[in-house]
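Sample 3 of the quickstart, ligand S-adenosylmethionine:
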Amino acid sequence: MAADRVLVWGTGNVYYANCQLLDYLKKQGVLKIVALVTKDRNAEIKDGCPVISKDEIHDYEWDIIVVAALGEMAESIQRDIRQLGIGADRVISIWDYAKKHAGTDTEYYRQTVARQIDVLKQILSASDEQVGDFDWMCARIKEYGIFPFRKQGEDILYTQYGMMQVVEEFAGLCCYISKLNIQTAIEIGVNAGKSSYIMCALLSRHNHGLKYTCVDIYDVMDSFDMYHAVLPSLEKQIPTTSEDYAGAGYDFVFIDADHSYDASIMDWQNVGKFANKVTCFHDIYAHEYDSLNGGIVRTWKEVMELTKNKKHKVFSSYPDQWMGIGVVEH
Ligand SMILES: C[S@@+](CC[C@H](N)C(=O)[O-])C[C@H]1O[C@@H](n2cnc3c(N)ncnc32)[C@H](O)[C@@H]1O
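Result:
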């Protein structure tokens, strides 16, 4: 099959975060990037491709436009594309393009899962010094992979099968929890399970009887059986919500489900406040949920107030701005 002649529209964060995948697909002969289209054309050539403006698109021969942008930026590009009279059948988002060519039946997926399972095995057999070492942990997380939603560094595997985490935040949390003696753990909102697998590996290193309960309303856990084979502590309880565990006392509680204030405060009321050792909240600075009655930002502030007699820890690379993991020590 001939390689797709592709115009990549967008050269910002989304483009950068997907560069590795585009490169991989280029090497596999899936695509050839004809040009990069950008509004702010400040270079002639970038990553070996011509950089062009939207007015030059018709001067090139191409098969498909891949939109490398999110939200309002993506909408504005789609408007420009319609104005140029280009049909929707010749346009695809970078996420859909990645899904199409790096889906779960591809070699790319098999290699990614194998790499992640290798990282989990490294964690399971690591020394206490290694798992407590921030740089060692950062290196494992970079090798495991980060979902390509923001460029965080050069040496990171960006893959749609990675974790939605900021490397340093999650590494900080991992080093911290690796020192806790946890027997029972519950994560409310596991999604693909990519963070759960790492946290389960860390917590089960010495505690072979550990149960790591994975809670969600939808089962989208990635290749659960394959990861479960190396992490028998994983226990999938889907569909359930925190209500099903109301009053249960887990040593470790990780809350990362519905990010509205009403739902996340209920997760705290149902299980978070009953934790024996720690309760973690993901996204404590995620202001994108503020419109949901204050969102998770409001919940974290309220929880800190409700637990002002306890110790708190925060792992954040963007304090008060984005992401962030908050911990209550019980
Ligand atoms: C942000 S994702 C979780 C990400 C995951 N913890 C990680 O670190 O990769 C949020 C998940 O919460 C789930 N969810 C939404 N509402 C929920 C609820 N009321 N109870 C449990 N899970 C819920 C969604 O289906 C989604 O998979």
